[in-house]
Amino acid sequence: MLDKVEKILIDEEKLRNRIREMGRQITEDYRGKDLIVICILKGAILFTSDLVKEIKLPLSIDFMAVSSYGTSTKSSGVVRILKDLDEEIEGRHVLIVEDIVDSGLTLNYLTENLLSRKPASLKICCCLDKPERRMAPVKVNYVGFNIPDEFVIGYGLDYAEKYRNLPFIGVLSKDAYQE
Ligand code: IMP
Ligand code: MG
User: Fold this and answer.
1) 100 CA distance to ligand 1 middle (Å)
2) Which of 13, 93, 135, 173 could serve as 33's disulfide partner, Cβ 3.0–4.6 Å?
3) Which ligand is nearest to the CA of 136?
4) pTM of the full predicted structure?
């Protein structure tokens, strides 16, 4: 598996330190509020599980699954809800937790969809941002790391459903695309 990693972009220690800072900030911002964290499956599972441990507040966690990528490395531009929330979010403070913002199409769609359910507030927290690639406007409130336009894997991010379990963020080697 490691032979498909061209280089490590963000190692475990960097992830841990940045997530601790983000958790601290979110803790300050949401003190006294009814917070619901929405993990966007599947990519955000590792990030969400580490992040919520650093948010020192009572909160609930819910999940939503959407698809915007097939098994390729290019966005289809089509967003489908594969699994909707279990909980109601009306009147609650919603924090969407996502793995990466790329074209922005997924989060642009999700934001509109969730806003129509009338939450008290809606913010976005993502582990990675590729600002160069933006096609749809998205306001990301908490960003872990800005990264260049390279296809990354690990820490929840996949290529054709593989590599999510790598504990770091790495760049996929070019020869892995051919398989
Ligand atoms: P967007 O709609 O183009 O912003 O894409 C968002 C989704 O595409 C993310 O939640 C990821 O699942 C996937 N994605 C975008 N860039 C990458 C990448 O570099 N590696 C793995 N998945 C990615
Ligand atoms: Mg994906």
Assistant:
1) 6
2) 93
3) 1
4) 0.94
Residues in the chain: 179
- Going by alpha carbons, the residue nearest to atom 16 of ligand 1 is 102
Q: Among 157, 158, 164, 165, which is best to mutate for testing ligand 1, by the most ligand atoms less than 8 A from CB?
A: 157
Dihedral sign of CA atoms 93, 126, 23, 50 in order: positive
Whether residue 102 lies in the annotated active site: yes
Q: Please report whether residue 179 resides in a domain.
A: no
For the CA atoms of 54, 28, 92, 106, the dihedral, rounded to the nearest 10 degrees, stands at -60
pLDDT tens by residue, 40-64: 999 999 999 999 999 999 999 999 9
The DSSP symbol for 143 reads E
**Residue 179 predicted with pLDDT over 80:** no
- Ligand 1 in reach of 67 Cβ (< 6 A): no
Range of the domain at 120: 2-174
Instruction: Check which CATH number belongs to the domain holding 36 and give it.
Output: 3.40.50.2020
